[in-house]
Specification:
Length: 538
């Protein structure tokens, strides 16, 4: 299956791309004709020849796509019935023209009469509103959305996004929203296609080429955006391509210190396993050396389980400072199983004083700063690492909260998952990895107003990752990649992709200990993928 382009466009960005396509010489009617034909193509794949298809059309361009699909399906021998929300004489522009072309072949019925026809149909096409809707569904559209059409009919195909879904946030606009078995969208995916609950409401997403030129997108080339007038896509899908190009190459004359030295802090006796999971993951992903810094009380407990991973005693922030005085230790992970409280805060702040080391703050290292006063100390310490405290530099810090930890650490931040991750990155000065089945990785905005803050969305995580210790392994993978000098966002994005791919390879029955053991297989495939990409000139 062909992989989709990596850029993701918001509703507003997609509207700009449409406008630029017209400015570049593609007539808007041609775009609508191509979109409607693509919808008809997918409808044909979902039904048998001659099937009964009901098309629900709205008063805008989404409805125009529906009229085009109706015409093509009718020409192919399907039994097509079209129902319109609103009066046909109030349609404007391209939608009015496509309705006129359909009327030469068939009738248009009132949406209020669609109930029984929809119940008897082999397929329903939702062409009511798409991504441009800015308010909750009302009236007849809301009633139909609440009638489980995807269950009562042979299936539901949505145009752009299911009506009632916000394409930019992935959230329903109100209580009523259509649920699709398949969604056809155009040119580029939107956040609503990959963020939950939108990802679930869209069903299978098919991306169609409708003739929008690639020149509608700006891309960085030699430090300059080309073309300058194009849409600047600041949201991307995480991908195997990203991971393949990110993992460090091994040089024939290198030695272990060439690939960094990760330090993982262990919790107290009887709470040491999480740190070891992280440490093994850091070693497996390529860190040249890994050391576990353990409380003295847990030295024997850790020693009984560690072989290739080194072990040192470390009980206080002062001792930790001396350990970090060895600047070859260039990545630090703290949090898994470490405990919540004052001791953890002291150790975190001491770690942040080591300006050259990459830092992963996970689990207890986040929860320990839930108090407002503690948060401000944490964020100030992170921003000091960035050089001037304004976030214009790089802090080399990654925070890895799940939704519960995020709510405790950033209680005042609201909005979509992308918006929340971006706000948290700007507030803290760190890269934010907001975990979930649709993990979002956001970096702080730069000082340049015309350079958007890049966000990466990871979508390859399977449900098997919902197991104890899985997050500890992810934190270790990121620390191991930071040790190999990857930047914060690249380390986080690559780590989360590898983590999820390991779970995909293993399948049901996965436990956290299994994950690091699959990493070598993933790395072999990524090295092969990189050779493939380079040979193809990409």
């Amino acid at each position: 299956m062909k992989e989709p382009p990596l850029e993701i466009l918001t509703n507003e960005q997609m509207a700009t791309a449409d406008r630029l396509a017209v400015e570049l010489g593609v007539p808007s009617l041609t775009l609508m004709e191509n979109a409607g034909r693509s919808v008809a193509d997918e409808a044909g794949k979902m039904t048998d020849a001659g099937a009964r298809i009901v098309i629900l059309c709205g008063p805008g361009n989404n409805g125009g796509d529906g009229f085009v699909a109706a015409r093509h399906l009718k020409e192919r021998g399907y039994d097509v019935a079209v129902f319109l929300l609103g009066a046909i004489d109030r349609l404007k522009g391209d939608a009015a023209e496509m309705a006129k072309r359909w009327l030469a072949m068939g009738a248009v019925h009132a949406l209020s009469d669609a109930g029984q026809a929809a119940a008897d149909a082999d397929l329903i096409i939702d062409a009511l509103f798409g991504a441009g809707l800015a308010r909750p569904l009302e009236g007849e559209a809301a009633r139909l959305a609440g009638s489980d059409l995807h269950l009562s009919a042979g299936g539901l195909l949505a145009v752009d996004v299911p009506s009632g879904l916000n394409g930019t946030t992935g959230e329903p606009l109100g209580e009523s929203v259509f649920r699709a078995d398949r969604t056809v969208t155009f040119f580029r995916l939107k956040p609503g296609h990959v963020l939950y609950p939108g990802r679930d409401l869209c069903g299978e997403v098919v991306l169609a080429d409708i003739g929008i030129p690639e020149e509608a997108l700006s891309r960085a080339r030699d430090g300059e955006l080309i073309p300058k007038s194009g849409v600047q896509a600041d949201i991307e899908l995480n991908s195997v391509q990203h991971a393949a190009l990110a993992i460090p190459e091994r040089r024939s004359q290198a030695h272990k210190y060439s690939y960094g030295h990760a330090l993982v802090l262990s919790g107290p006796s009887a709470a040491t396993g999480a740190a070891r999971l992280g440490a093994r993951a850091a070693l497996r992903v390529g860190s040249g050396l890994v050391t576990v810094a353990s409380p003295s009380e847990a030295i024997q407990e850790n020693a009984a389980h560690l072989t290739s991973i080194m072990l040192i005693p470390c009980d206080t922030a002062g001792q930790l400072g001396r350990v970090l005085g060895d600047q070859r230790k260039n990545a630090v992970l703290i949090g898994p199983g470490f405990g919540v409280g004052e001791h953890t805060r002291e150790m975190v702040l001491k770690i942040l004083e080591a300006r050259t080391a990459g830092v992963v703050l996970d689990a207890d290292a986040l929860t320990s700063f839930a108090n407002e006063e503690f948060r401000q100390h944490l964020f100030a310490a992170i921003k000091r690492r960035a050089g001037n405290g304004a976030g214009a530099g790089t802090s080399r810090v990654v925070l890895t909260p799940h939704e519960g930890e995020f709510a405790r650490l950033f209680p005042s931040i609201e909005g979509s998952k992308i918006d929340r991750a971006r706000q948290a990155a700007n507030l803290s000065g760190a890269v934010i990895l907001l975990k979930g089945p649709d993990t979002v990785i956001a970096r702080p905005a730069t000082s340049a107003a015309d350079v958007p803050s890049r966000v990466v969305i990871n979508t390859n995580a399977p449900p098997w990752l919902a197991t104890a210790g899985s997050g500890d392994v992810l934190a270790g993978l990121i620390a191991g990649l930071l040790a190999q000098s990857l930047d914060e966002q690249t380390a986080a994005s690559t780590g989360v992709w590898i983590h999820a791919e390991c779970a995909n390879r293993f399948g049901p029955g996965l436990i956290a200990e299994d994950l690091p053991e699959i990493v070598p297989e993933i790395l072999r495939d990524l090295h092969a993928k990189r050779r493939e990409l380079r040979n193809s000139g990409r």
